Amino acid sequence: MRVVALVESVDHVCCRYRVAAFRNALAAHGHSLDIRPLPLTTFGRLGIGRDFTADAVIIQRKLLPSWAIALLRRRVPRLIFDFDDAVWLRDSYSPRGFHDPRRTRRFRATVSACDLVIAGNEFLAEAARTFTSPDRVVVIPTCVEPSHYPVATHEPRSGLQLVWVGSRSTLRGLEQFTPTLSAIGRAVPGVRLKLICDKFLQIPDLPVDECVWREDTEAAEIAAADVGIGWVPDDPWSHGKCGLKVIQYQAAGLPVIANPVGVQTEMVRDEETGHLATSTEEWVAAVSRLANDARLRQQLGSAGRRQVHERYSVAAGGRGWFAALHRLRVESLRKSG
Question: Which of 155-169, 244-258, 308-322 shows the lowest mean pLDDT across its residues?
């Protein structure tokens, strides 16, 4: 099949991890993938779908106006929507609250118009099933390529380095977590926090190692740390997140400490791939334990890396995409025949 993906930006993190990552895997099964930016203007959107030939078109994450979806639906043989956020809501930091009638209307119009919906987790899939037939909705997690990540060695050393990776938009969540991070700094001797980001913050009682995010060094900087941390607000927007940070930590062989929100409860299992912690006391206890046991860090990190290979690797996600496209083609042939 000739597949065209319409994305917000070819450099956007969602495009890189949820579309571009699977180009080679799809090619191995005979599918071509062409990635194009969505038109930004009304005039450009009036021509959407006219300037290319495709067997299937993927709309990646973006909620277009209902009229634009209707135009695209008429012009392409198969329409797919891929999303990895609760796009029908405002985010955790909006002063206007989560509910957004316009986004909800656009989400309904998009999902109901599509032949196939690819959701990044089950929470998102359930939302999509509200507006379309359940058999049109498939869960394919956000995936990484494990071979791009060096494996942490967990050699004994003085002091434990926690790591958090993200952008200035998600850094707002970490700011809310500052009191607990400060408590960790006071309770665990020698602990530090590496921030891999495009913006930084100071945390009382916890030294911060500032590491400017770069695509070509991100994986190595993660693997050079000891423990990955994942904290998100416990709210509807965060339940739609797909856990990229956690997957990256695990791909590098790091144990992970996270709060039990959304997919983090699936990815981080106590005593298997890391620790789930809610209260400040639980966070301090989890960091203290890992700080004093390099062998445990190695054990949990290795289990997390195996999990990535099995469930969150590009190979695993590629198999999911191939199965979904194959079923879509078979159904189209059955209807036409």
Answer: 155-169
Residues 170 and 300 in one domain: yes
* Listed residue (81, 79, 31) closest to 56, CA to CA: 79
Q: Does the structure show a pLDDT above 70 at 253?
A: yes
How does DSSP classify residue 21?
G
Q: Report whether pLDDT(164) > 90.
A: yes
Mean pLDDT over the full length of the chain:
95
Count of domains for the chain? 2
Mean pLDDT of all residues in 196-206: 96
The token pair at 88 is 């029908």
CATH number for position 222: 3.40.50.2000
Residue 21 · residue 141 · CB < 8 Å: no
Looking at the chain, the number of H-run helices and the number of E-run strands are 15, 12
Question: Residue 175's domain spans which residues?
Answer: 146-312
148 vs 199: CA distance, rounded Å = 24
**Average of per-residue pLDDT across 310-324:** 96
Complete DSSP assignment for 225-272? SSEEEE---SSHHHHT---HHHHHHHHTT--EEE-S-TTHHHH--BTT
Nearest of 251, 254, 21 to residue 149 by alpha carbon:
251
Do 75 and 57 share a structural domain? yes
Q: Is the pTM of this model over 0.85?
A: yes
Domain match, 115 and 170 both? no
Tokens of 196: 């891999």
| 150 shares its domain with 287 | yes
Each residue of 276-308: pLDDT tens digit? 999 999 999 999 999 999 999 999 999 999 999
Domain shared by 96 and 211, yes or no: no
Integer CA distances (angstroms), 156 to 39, 79, 92, 159, 193, in order: 52, 52, 38, 9, 17
Residue 124, number of CB atoms within 10 A of its CB: 26
128 burial (CB, 10 Å; 0-12 / 13-18 / 19+) is buried
One domain for residues 157 and 301: yes
- 160 and 134, same domain (yes or no): no
pLDDT at 145: 97
In this predicted structure, what is the pLDDT of residue 329?
Answer: 85
- The Cα–Cα gap between 120 and 103 comes to 18
